[in-house]
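Notes from the 1:1 (GR / supervisor)

We went over the backlog. Supervisor wanted to see one worked example end to end before approving the batch request, so GR pasted a single chain during the call. The sequence is below; no edits were made to it. Supervisor asked that the structure be written out right there so they could see what the output format looks like.
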Amino acid sequence: LSSVTVTDCLIEDNIAANYAGVYVNAFQVCDVVFDDNTIVNNDSTGAYAGGYIDIENFSTYSVSGNTFDDNDATGNYGGLYLYTYNDTDGVFDDNTFINNSATTNYGGARVDADYLCQMSMNRNVFGDSALGGNSAGSNYGGLYLYIGYNSDVEGDDLAIDSNTVTAGSYGGGYVECEYLSTFSMPKMVVTDNTAS
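Structure output shown during the call:
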């Protein structure tokens, strides 16, 4: 069993064509802990300004307590792309996404649980009326959540607030659940998001 641990880190003021902030790749049978980090003011002239976390193939993870703030991508994925695949189970709790932007798609975050995955998803915030929302030029300003092929995402207290799309669709949240998958999210609050 391999492991990756990134905790209590400040990832700030990085500039790159792609993957400006942090890139974690855990391909097979790995335990990933990415908790209590601050990812702020990273700029990508392409994609993945804040973070890209790829966890696959019988792995486990905790991605919790992180703040993604003011990360800007000229292409896709301003804040975070979390991709989990193939019997990978974990926790995605207590994360905050504010003031992130993408010129094209996925301003705040894209989160995937694909192919026999289980995800606990509690108390996450995507945009805040006081602190600032996330934005995208084309689609998916706040959150895009994909749940594929017999996967399950369950949680509580999801907040999606004050996110925008300037020239497209899905300003706040978009959930795609398919192929015998399930999604359960009581106490979800979606307010003041815009798309045009």
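Supervisor's comment: The chain has a mean pLDDT of 97.
Batch request approved.
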